[in-house]
Amino acid sequence: MGAGISEGANAFLEALMGRRACPVPVGGEVPLRVGLDLGTASIVLVVLDGEGRPLTWEMEECAVVRDGLVVDFAGARVIVARLKERLEGLLGRELTRTAIAVPPGTGTRDCAAHGYVAEGAGLEVVSVLDEPTAANAVLGVRDGAIVDIGGGTTGVSILRDGAVVSTTDEPTGGTHVSLVIAGNRGISVEDAEALKRNPGEQKGLLPIVKPVLQKMATIVGRAVRGHDVKVLYLVGGTCTLAGIERIIEQEPGIPSFLPPHPFLVTPAGIARSMTP
What we know:
Layout: H1 7-17, E1 32-38, E2 42-49, E3 54-61, E4 65-66, E5 69-70, H2 73-91, E6 97-102, H3 108-120, E7 124-130, H4 131-139, E8 144-149, E9 153-160, E10 163-171, H5 174-185, H6 189-197, H7 199-224, E11 232-235, H8 244-248, E12 256-257, H9 265-273
Parallel strand pairs: 1-6, 6-7, 8-11, 11-12
Antiparallel strand pairs: 1-2, 2-3, 4-5, 8-9, 9-10
Helix pairs in contact: 2-3, 4-9, 5-6, 5-7
């Protein structure tokens, strides 16, 4: 794939976005691919058919994971079970198996904790992969860097010939953006989160949160130094903030590209990577 997000990836993400409450009907004989993404700010569950075509998805905002570590097992299990039940109701099918993903470098014990959450909600974990590999199952990047800006951290994964050759993950993410908004506006962090997600408010918020975004850009600049990276691909929930890509690309001086609905890239890639 060359510079920019491919038309196929764009079309896939747009189609998936439209399936949240309007799934494609499937019979009991159709194989399913399921992907569970336990994020810092939300949990997302995606269902594709056996060919990798979008069927439906669901998400819930939460604070049960911190920097890739499950800090509220019971809360996470309840949310996953609730998402599973909603999707089963939409599809008229029981979901029994899933793939999951963890941040690069996650230890064995923490990987197991993610699996226990899924299994506690009634989903057998059939595969575990790292998040950049999952994201790339949608983006199809051959050479470049995937920049994953989540709730707690900014992660940078460098790819060469389609394989991840280097990863870094440093604190500073969407939660820090919300804290700055809360302090500036004199509101709660929860209200700041809601304000940040409102497209009508984002243009006015950008100057306020620009220093935090510039810190993220500095993290990216350090991560790509010496790797001859020519393109950045942005994913993660924080990347829904309008204008973020122009700020991120300034520090390293490398063009950045933003897929539609970037918060869906990793969970959709997890599902795509599952063998039905």
